Amino acid sequence: MAEANLFHGLRRAVLAEIASMAAAGELPPGLDTGRVAVEPPREAAHGDVTTNAAMVLAKPAARKPREIAEALVARLRALPHVTGAEIAGPGFINLRLADGFWRERLRVVLRAGTAYGRCDIGAGRAVNVEYVSANPTGPLHAAHARGAVIGDALANLLEVAGFAVTREYYINDAGSQVDTLARSAFLRYREALGEAIGKIPEGYYPGEYLKDVGQALAAKHGPALRDLPEAQWLETVKRFAVDALMAEVREDLRVLGVRHAVFTSERAMVESGGVERAVDWLKAHGDVYTGTLEPPKGKLPDDWEPRPQLLFRATRYGDEIDRPLQKSDGSWTYFANDIAYHHDKFRRGFAEMIDVLGADHGGYVKRMQAAVKAITEGKGALDVKLCQLVHLMDAGKPVKMSKRAGTFVTLRDVVEAVGKDVVRFIMLTRRNDQALEFDYAKVKEQSRENPVFYVQYAHARARSVLRHAAEELPGADLSAAGLASCDLAALQAPEELQVIKIMADWPRLVEGAAEAHEPHRVAFYLADLAAAFHGLWNRGKDDARLRFIQAEDRAGTLARLALVQAVALVAAAGLRVFGVEPVEEMR
RNA sequence: GCGCCCUUAGCUCAGUUGGAUAGAGCAACAGCCUUCUAAGCUGUGGGUCGGCGGUUCGAAUCCGCCAGGGCGCGCCA
User: Fold this and answer.
1) Nearest-CA neighbor of A557 among A566, A548, A567?
2) Domain residue spans in chain A?
3) Is A202 near strand B, with its CB below 7 A from some atom of it?
């Protein structure tokens, strides 16, 4: 089978020519070619392929870029499929490839079918992607959807790139927030037993959703807990409430189409001695000491007093200050627990870890990366994807939310309003570290400006043509495999070749996006593919020769259907990375 | 006050890990189309890449300082 990423082969060909130039004495031997890039040029006008080889080699070879380029371009011109090679700018070499070469790429797409774009840069390495990890103190709200979708799409992308991915959710069920949850649930329990509880006091979770938990507690325990001192009901109620809310969270995630393979309980990890294990490990490596931190610069916390405490030597691993592991009451800080959690991930075989977190964790990244470096002796790597805010709008007006009043828009509200596929796609139309505007009205609009619609429409349009063709050409094999072996000579128009070139770039895009951990690149790719396909379609309006189905031209029709089939395949492959169902028709 | 992230066309955003004359969609302007296969098409104008320095063949991209916005700043998670 032909190599999916055609630029790999081209790069090898360029390097082979460089080697033979060295052998012929035209270049010094043993040059480092690591920085030689062979890629599509930014501008289509510059040809199909560009390489910076002459410029990169100029310095080590002590030659002028253009001199090297002259010699190299003559050799590249002789390569198979190369129809043009020229030197441009400061020493770029631009290549043009034969139309026939591109037509053959179409067969590569069709033969690979739904597997087109898969690659093996991951080589089966284990990667742990942790995402959502919201506190189990309430239903997921709209902002959680972004992290959920980014994490899920990134996991899909890494799978396509050949990694062994584990999707993980960290349940923060150990801290004081779940104590607050338990007290709030207990209040609702008393309410369910008929007591008038009045206004929910400050410091409790006011959300209506806790009424159900209170009802369920009352149904299970009757009045048995009501008159006990807190110490005797807290554990029971906490566990019950956390379980109930995690069930809600899982349901929210299911509605969004997000499924984690592993749920790790912070509490279970702490109770099993995970923190001691991790801290002892750090102690043994000299990364823990008892010391007193300088007060933070600027405004002091009201109750600041210098206090010796157990510290992690984060400065040794690139952080600004050393970080506390224990609170004043001797219990572990959240950070200590998180070190233990990442230690645990590493022990489970994950050297590569990705945490998808909210932007409010920004100040936390350096210390966690320092900790991962320490706890894995430099063998592990942690990438943190911070997700910026989502601004919910409706027709340009902000949707009102108040966390204090407990009136926030839930994830489920959003999914019910526009559908999971729209939520998923839109959440991926911006880089994770940029704020995103989510406008109910705009995301449902059926227009060029709405990328979900535009991309889905391209897929639906392609599928529609194939359905139509099946009626026009009874008995023809219009499957991808069948069309892969038809005569493609009719594909001559620049618009047709342009669509093929974009599809030929899909494997390269997957590699780059997977390496950079940037699923949003897929959204922009799909929009480009859709634009080229719609453009081709529109050209068929004025130029009948570009219409896909032409009764009097069976061979040409089959060739164009091969193109259409490939567009459907690639669009579907991209949408599946997003966990979005490609639609057969627009409704 | 300190740290992290962000700043690209009037607006919304890309920019392939340092490449060429910085791109796309809206909006604006100028035409076309009014019916086919499915909710239009073509063209034009628009930029100090927040600012100033530095690194080098080459910077939106890397480094330093400054400005503006967001987030965070021991005993919240």
Assistant:
1) A548
2) 6-97, 176-247, 447-577
3) no
